[in-house]
Amino acid sequence: MDFYYIDEEYIRFLQQYEKEKRGVTKIPNIRYTNRNKFAFGVVMQVNGMNYYVPVSSFDKKQEANILIRVPGDEKEVKGTLRFNYMFPVPDECIERLIIKEIKDEKYRSLLNKEYQFCVDNAEHIQKKAKKIYEMVTSNRKQVLTDNSCAFRILEAGYQEYIKKHM
Fold first, then answer.
1. For the whole model, what pTM was predicted?
2. What CA–CA distance (Å, rounded) separates 152 from 9?
3. Cα 9 to Cα 138: distance, rounded to the nearest angstrom
4. Residue 35: pLDDT above 80?
5. Nearest CA among 138, 162, 160, 161 for reference residue 150
6. How many angstroms separate the CA atoms of 136 and 152, rounded?
7. What is the pLDDT of residues 9-34, one digit of tens each?
8. Overall domain count for the chain
9. Residue 2 has pLDDT above 80, yes or no
10. Can you point out the beta strands (E) in the chain?
11. What's the pLDDT at 34?
12. DSSP class per residue in 45-85
């Protein structure tokens, strides 16, 4: 498990694919003004597809996320893992984020803390990923399903992308 950048072309493809099939996409944009968002994974595997969960600066507790906490820090909650927005990604479309190469010392320190939290909580993270996936794919809660990626549609999009590009 590690932090990864996801290929922007693949993200745009999945966003368009989900929008065409569902009328809306819940795949998050990955472009910030000064850097790209990144994801944590592999959080689970479905039919040979690796799922990655976006790491967000969003800091409110919700059913479909895990707060990234660093006890003792002035601002304890550093962000969240947003499981309702996780998606499958082919190995060819990821690039490992190498924290020690980050020039901005403050940002590098934050990434190290977030990463350590994820490593320390890997089992809980994987259980949460499976739980949210199951809840959404079985439509157990309509409000959760409506505010989540359409995982099965994205899995079909993943397969189509591989056929076209790999």
1. 0.92
2. 20
3. 29
4. no
5. 138
6. 10
7. 999 999 999 999 999 999 988 876 66
8. 1
9. yes
10. 2-6, 39-46, 49-56, 65-69, 77-82, 87-88, 94-96
11. 65
12. EETTEEEEEEEES-----TTEEEEE-TTSSS-EEEEEEGGG
The CATH number of the domain holding residue 70 is: 3.10.129.130
Q: What's the length of the chain?
A: 166
Q: Which tokens go with 35?
A: 């850097």
Q: How confident is the model at residue 75 (pLDDT cuts 50, 70, 90)?
A: confident
Residue 37 lies in a domain: yes
Query: Do the beta carbons of residue 67 and residue 76 sit within 8 Å?
Result: no
Structure tokens at 62: 């919700």
Q: Is 21 helix (H, G, I), strand (E, B) or coil?
A: helix
**What tokens appear for 22 in the block?**
């569902």
* Structural domain boundaries enclosing 86: 2-161
Residue 166 covered by a domain: no
Averaged pLDDT of the chain:
92
Q: How far apart (Å, rounded) are the C-alpha atoms in residues 159 and 84? A: 20
> Is the pLDDT assigned to residue 119 strictly greater than 90?
yes
